[in-house]
Amino acid sequence: MRTGGETDALKFYARELRIPSICDDIPEVASAAAEGNWTHTAFLLKLLELEVDRRIENRKMQRVKRAGFPQLKYLQELQRSELPEEARALLPELETLDFVKEGRNAVLYGNPGTGKTHLATALGIKACMEGYSVMFTSVPHLLTQIRECRSQMTLRQLELRFERFDLVVCDEFGYVSFDKEGGELLFNHLSLRAGKRSTIITTNLAFSRWNEIIKDKVLCAALVDRLTHKAFLVNMTGESYRVKETLNFSSKN
Question: Which CATH superfamily is domain 68-246 in?
Answer without folding.
Answer: P-loop containing nucleotide triphosphate hydrolases (3.40.50.300)
